[in-house]
Amino acid sequence: MNLSLVLFTCLILFIERQCLVTAQNNGDDSSSPFRWFKPDNFDIISRKMDQANPNNCETMSEADLRLPPTSLSQIPQYNEIPMRQWFTNRSKLLHLHNLALNRAFFYSYILQRLDHPTRDPQYLPSLMYYYLSSSADISSGPNVINISGVFMDTNTTYANWYELKDINKTLPLFAPLARRLDNWNDEMNFLRIPTNATIEITDLGAGPNNNYTASWYKNNPYIRDREMGIDFIPDRRGTAPSKNQYTTKIQLATISGDPIEKLENTKFYGPNAPGVKETFLPVRFTRPYYDCGGTNRWIVSSVAALTDFMPRYSNITRLRGPRMIGVVVQSMDFYRIDFNPCPPGLGNPNHYLAGIARCKPTTLCVPLPGFGFKRGGYQCVCQPGHRLPYEQNGPFRGVDIEAATEEEYRNNFDCIPVGWREVIPEETGMKNNLERFRRSIGEQTSTLWNRFKDPSVHLLNMILTTFGSFKQNIFPTPPKLDESLLINEISDKPFKTTNLDDQPLDRLVPGYRSVSHLLPLEQNDFNLTYTEDVYEDGFFDNDTYILINKPSNIDSKDQSNNIKKRVRRNVDTPFYTVGVGTVFDADRYFEVQRLIAHVRKVTSQNCHLMTADQLILPGEVSYGVEKQFEMVGRTALRLSHFLSAYYQNNVVGELYGSLKTGFPINRFQLFGEVFANVLSNFDIVSSGIFFDYQMFTDHDGTTWDLFAPYAYKPLLATQAAEAIDMSINAYRDYTEKPWFRTLKSRWASSRQSLERITAKPYIRSDVNGSQLQRYFTFPIYYRVPHYEEGYWTQPYFDCDGLVKDWLITYATPFFGVVGEEKALRFMGVVTASVKLTSLDINQCPQSFYTPNFFKNTARCDFRSTYCKLIPRHYFSSGSYKCECRQGFEYPLNDRTWYFHGEMMEREYQLMLAGKPNRYELLRCRQGVASGLSSSSVVILILVNFIVIYLHSL
């Protein structure tokens, strides 16, 4: 029995060993599904990220809690932001950059503006100002900002919220930090549904082991990381280098609206503003790191330094100088940041995750936004000279490639070479006055070619058609597109030659129904570039031909009579349809051209000559602004959330022992907030806070009828900003503006749809920060609007304003507990404006209900191509590309695979002007043309010779 037991045990061990070996072999076998590809850098990072968790992170080394520096690529840099095009996949990182710069500008301005030792300490930001400002950074940016904080250097914080006798008493460390909490298990969340609306605010400078500036502090890459360029505090650079001086001017008004003649000029030192070649940047990004003990997630932080004069209060002036006294930190989840998996190149500098895409050699890799840190965030388009297979609709998706087995990958995801490719001919050495005469029918002699021309061409077409049908039966193409070609009624009226001086152009060119009040369209509004002068320059519609310029080679009446002219054929512009409600509209096309020309013509010099209707554009013109400039809107939303939180929770004069928390918001702080908005974001040209009637009470207890701090950038200024109190008599009617009246009426009766934010503040127990304790009111709540509840205005020209340019403004309300009944009321509006010329336009086909003024004006050949938007081409026509449809191929021999919209627009306008053009040639051809082999060509030639021989008999 013992022997049988031993044999049975050995048998079990042998079977287990064989199973283990088989499993290992299957894991290493490339034929195993989903294991055929080799590990790459993505797998290395994934394994490292999976190792860290809340249970073991405290025992792990610093190197194990940080990823390689190049894990984060295409990082926004201050001196490159105005010169580069930033796409959707970097909009969140750009907001992270700008928000850190925003808070650095504000604290630098306010600390240096209010530096009087006896008068100004009471006006400085209070403890709750720091806390609620960090909370507003998070609540205004869901899915963007997860952590926001200010980390002050050692002994640089002068706490005005403590009743201290010594004015030069400083806090050892002070770091108000807000984190977004996962509140699924919160005691107040009865439904156990995460809402992202719970924020924890704490002072990281209080409690044991709190020295975040020490070298032994493991979780502080935002303090010191030389490899990433983070070395702001302690400031060892002296008082002159790395400090830029900024200038502000404020036009104040009295309580009755009369302007104060003396401007309030302020100069302050703020974040660095480097030139193109300078390397000391105002904002740096950390490498991805694990936030152990905090959010317990892998995050990326932006870091910006704030500046103050130190020592702050000193009678010896020569001892004081600008010094970086702290850093502002804004963080987001690393999993939400897109990366470029395509091979390194000019637009994709080499980084740790470059080249992990699995596009085949016959394809090109194109990154896609919105995937975050996961595979498949790309697509594979065909290389120039190749086309997609018949069964493939659109480029190969990265998610499909990553999920394919080895057999599927080997037999698919390849493009087919294009055999016969066209070359665009170039005419060189042609004379300007060259004329070619068309031969008459009588001049054509009875040659051999005329005898077999028609039968051979007919036979050749029949053979090509048969061959194409035969090939399509072997390789079936997708069903026919559901399209129709709608052609206008062809007019029998001859073309009339008219002069531009006799009749305005806007009555002859079709369209102009919705923008008839704008400036007329002129010939120089089109980019018609052609070197030949013998062609007439003009436009045509169904009934009339308009002569714009007389040909330069026709000077006399006799000479013009000697030249025989051909009557031009009247060919209408076709209307292409792609599905229900999408049709090319020629009328709308001319409306678009007229509107773009009108925007270009109206300037600050002539805007006062325009009517009121000519300074306002239709609302459909700003289609897409809520997505493209979402982060600009969220900058205004952040200020709205902060004002709402402060006015709903601050009690003036509130005192807890030696801790004073009830500080009112004053006008110095409000002007500092709007200054920070315009200085930190290149897209924002103006920003304002507009209080409703008798809603603003200043620090001295005076209630103003109206108050509206408004900041804007002067023309061509980079380190200066100006501001004005819009309650001045010239602008006192802002409460009647459409954006103010719309928001006020919207929230006048009900405020139930406002989001409730829960904040859990923890404060230090004493001045020295011995330990943390809950705030005396715990938790605190405030109600705020969502981004979608804001209001984007229609485009307008700010002729009577201070910017004097075409603008689009985002407005969002803020609310406070006011009055004796302590009810939640509408208090005012926060605005942020951007230039209209920075907006992208979408001319591609869209449904009838889409409120896009530019839709259905793309000049693609919709039978063979489809339209796709090219972002970041701004407010100009032609910002799209025409890519080949399924079953079609790009016919030209060049380095691209699509027809650019600018080329399509130019050729279409040349066609309208009667000039030589290639518009009818800019289309894709059916993919069967590439399958013609050399043997097929030989057969066609032999058939041709047979036909010639038969006709010669």
From TrEMBL:
Cellular localization per UniProt: Cell membrane
UniProt entry tagged with the keyword Signal: yes
Pfam families: GPR158_179_EC
GO molecular function: G protein-coupled receptor activity
Key words, A-Z: Cell membrane, G-protein coupled receptor, Glycoprotein, Membrane, Receptor, Signal, Transducer, Transmembrane, Transmembrane helix
Domain of life: Eukaryota
Span of domain GPR158/179 extracellular: 285-386, 792-888
GO cellular component terms, semicolon-separated: plasma membrane
Protein name: G-protein coupled receptor 158
Organism name: Schistosoma margrebowiei
